[in-house]
Amino acid sequence: MNLSAFRQEIAKPRTSYQLCLLGIVGGISAASLIILFRLSVEWVQLAFLQEVNKFNTLEPVFRLLLPVCGALLIIMFAWVTGFKHYRMGIPFVIHRIKKRYGHIPLRTTLNQFFGGMFALASGFVVGREGPSVHLGAAGSGFLGEWLKLPYNSIRILAGCGIAAGISASFNTPFAAVIFVMEVVLREYKIHVFIPVMLAAACGSVLTRMVFGEVHELSFLQFQDLPHWQYFYLIIFGIVLGGLATLFNTQLMTVIRWFRPVKMVWRLLIAGVITGIAGLFIPQAMGAGFESVHEIISNDSVQFMLLILFAKFVLALTAIGLGIPGGVIGPVFVLGMLSGAILAMPLNIIFDTGDPNTSSFALLGIAGLLTAVLHAPLAALSAVMELSHSPQVILPAMLVIVPAYVTSTQLLGNKSIFIKQLEYQKLSYTTSPVLETLQKTGVLAVMDTEYKLFVDAPDRYILQFLESSPTHPVVQKSSFEIDVQYQLVQYDISLGHNASPLIFYNMEGVSAQATLAEVYEILQVNRDGAVFVYDSAPSELIGVITWNNLRHHLHKAQ
Prior knowledge:
Elements: H1 3-10, H2 17-45, H3 60-81, H4 90-100, H5 106-121, H6 129-146, H7 151-170, H8 173-184, H9 190-211, H10 230-257, H11 263-280, H12 289-298, H13 301-320, H14 328-350, H15 357-373, H16 376-387, H17 393-410, H18 416-423, H19 432-437, E1 451-454, H20 458-467, E2 473-478, E3 483-490, E4 501-505, E5 507-510, H21 515-522, E6 529-533, E7 540-545, H22 546-556
Helix pairs in contact: 2-5, 2-6, 2-7, 2-9, 3-5, 3-11, 4-18, 5-6, 6-7, 7-8, 7-9, 8-9, 8-16, 10-13, 10-15, 10-17, 11-13, 12-14, 13-14, 14-15, 15-16, 15-17, 16-17
C-alpha cells in the first residue's frame, strides 16, 4: 500500500491494521527513547554512586553539592535551548494532545531528556514518569509529523508513545494503557484503545529485553488481610484522601509563591534546599522505591515520619520550583511511607503481632495516587502490576473509593494535573462537536469527484450543472502571485435580478487537517466549502462542502 492510501485509511476513526501498525511502530520508537533515557540516568549515577539511587553512600559534602550541581546543569541546558521552551511534563503534554493533536516542540523535548536526566541523577525528589510521558509522546509524534500523517492519527500516535513510554519505564503495560485513556486522552474509544494497547505491549517487551523481568515493587509482598481489617481500610482511605488534598494544595501554593521569581533562581533554590536536606538526611534524597522499602522494613515509626515529612517537603520544592520530573514517583514513595505508618495503629491497639507493613505500603500507593491524580483505575492497575500481586485488588478498592470521595467531594480537591493546567492557563477541553470532528481527517471525507473549471465563462458552468446539478463545481482563477478557488452552485435565493450562479470563496486546509478545522472555517456562514491541498496550497486534491460536513457530523453523533 502506498503512503497516500495509508494516510487516507488512518484518517478514518475506525480500527484497521494500518492503525495497529502505526501503534507498533510508534511504540517501538517511543520505548527505544525511554530505554535510552533510563540507561543515561543510570550511567550518570553510577559515575559517582556505588548503586543506583543509593545517595547515602556519598560523603556529606557531595550530598550537599550534588543537587546544586544538578540544578546548574539544568539551567545551562535550558539557557542553550531557550527558557521559553522550558514547558514540559504531563500537564503540558495533556494540553498539546487536546489542542495541538500531540505535536511536541523539539526544544522542550531536549530540555525534558537532559533536564530530567540531571534531575533524577542528582537526587531531586521527582519521578521518571514525567519525562517518560513527554518523551514518549514526542518520540512517536515526530514520526507522524515526518510522515505527514493526518492530525487525528498523530494524536493517537502520541497516545501510543505515552503508553509505550510508561510501559518501558515501569514494565506495566496494562497500567500504561489505563493511564493514557483515563488521564491523558480522557476517553475510551476502541479504535484508539487497540493501537495504544499494542504500543504498551511493545514498550514492555523492549524493556524486558534490556532490563529483564523486573517488577518495580515486587519486593512488597502482599499478604491477605483478615476480614475485620477491611473496616480499617475505609478509615485508611479517608486519611490518604486528606493527605493527597494537602499535597495538591501545598504544591499549588509553592508554584504561586515562586511565580514572580526568575527560573534560574527557582532552580537554584530547589537545589540548595535538596542539598541541605541530603546533608543531614541522605535517605530523603531521590524517589527510589527500594531505598524506601529498606526504611519501612528496618526503621522506627519516628524515623519513617521524619522521612515522610522530608520527602513531602522536597517533592513540593522540586516540582513546585520547576525541576524537570514527574509527580507520580514522589506520590508512590509518599504512599509507601504513609501506608507503612498507618499500619502501625493496628499493631498498637489490637496487638496483632504482624502489622502487614508491605501490604499497607501497597495500599497506601493506591489510595494516595488515586486522590492526587483522580485516576482510580490507573492507580489500581499500577499497584497490581508493579507488585505482581493480583490479590491486592479487593483491599485496594476499599482504600481507593474513600480516598477518592474524600478528596473530591468532602475536600473539593482536583487532579493535580488539572490544577496545574488551569493555573498555567493551558486549555485542555474542547466542545463536543469539535471533539467529534477531530477524530476524522479530511482525507476520509473529502470529495475527489469534483469538476474543475479554469477561468471559465458562466455559460459553460451552467451547461455542466444542468446535467449534474448536485456535482461539486470549482472555479479556479489565476492571478500573478496567487490562485483562488471558488465553489459554484445555483443561486436559489430568488432575489430580484439575481445571477443564476453563486460563487463562494474557498479557503484551503492541509491534507493533515481534521474536520474540526473545516468546521471552524465554515460554521460562520454555514455554507460554502473548503478545498484540501497536499504539499502546496495551490494544488487542490479534494473538496468538502458544508452539507457534506453536516451530514458526517450527524452520522457520527
